[in-house]
Automatic annotation (TrEMBL):
The gene is proC. One of its GO terms (cellular component) is cytoplasm. Belongs to the pyrroline-5-carboxylate reductase family. Residues 159-263 form the Pyrroline-5-carboxylate reductase dimerisation domain. This is Pyrroline-5-carboxylate reductase. It comes from Herbihabitans rhizosphaerae. Catalyzes the reduction of 1-pyrroline-5-carboxylate (PCA) to L-proline. SUPFAM superfamilies: 6-phosphogluconate dehydrogenase C-terminal domain-like (SSF48179), NAD(P)-binding Rossmann-fold domains (SSF51735). The keyword NADP applies. Its main location: cytoplasm. It catalyses: L-proline + NADP(+) = (S)-1-pyrroline-5-carboxylate + NADPH + 2 H(+); L-proline + NAD(+) = (S)-1-pyrroline-5-carboxylate + NADH + 2 H(+). It is found in: Cytoplasm.
Amino acid sequence: MSTIAVLGAGKIGEALLSGLLHGGRAPTDLLFTERHPERSVELTKRYGVRAVDVPTAAKQADVLVVAVKPQDIEPLLDELAPAITNDTLVVSLCAGLPTALYDRRLPDGVPVVRVMPNTPMVVGEAMSAISAGRHATPAHLSTVEELLSVVGQVVRVPESQQDAVTALSGSGPAYFFYLVEAMIDAGILLGLPRAVAEKLIIQSAVGAAAMLAETGEHPVTLREAVTSPAGTTIMAIRELERHGVRAALLAAIEAARDRSEELGKAHEE
């Protein structure tokens, strides 16, 4: 894994570049492609990584990380197909796109690993789920685990579960941001200065996540430990249940799963 090229330097592509650099990867070991010249100049100045075109990336890199938007995948594969060989590992970070799409559009035998990461990659706390395509071997999966472990945690799942992963952890940070935003607004409504409300809620979120990760306790157990009989917390929980917050979350995540499936079907022949 001497040279890695990130194809598409949007938010997730830049997050990966930044994470790899923070994880110790040298700028000379990385390449990226970007269709907007001003964006290329900005990223090269910021990270010291060279911008190239897609055919050059295919020829010079051992691993190609596809990080374009799903709607931009077809023109990218048109550029990639004539230049790539079976010696190059393709890692797809495109939400909803199955490895079968790459199998159809790239030369026979090109190994593909499908990944669903999330944006905490930029601070080294990503959750990425990986799945092997038809030509990918356990060694390829190990390569991708090594690549992504410097920017967070990695799990292996069957590709059939990737749409569920997309809905749960791929989109998951947005749900937490949405909740934190609402809680900060509540603090302001109760008369707290915004800066104080933000500090209270953000640190509470960090602490709660650390408790979940480090204690191994079930979320229900941790919640019950905060919930005293006839106290403030149970009154708040009652209101959340009365307004159907749990049901709304279930419906929201199902809707995200359905959209991920739609994105994949849009590229079926």
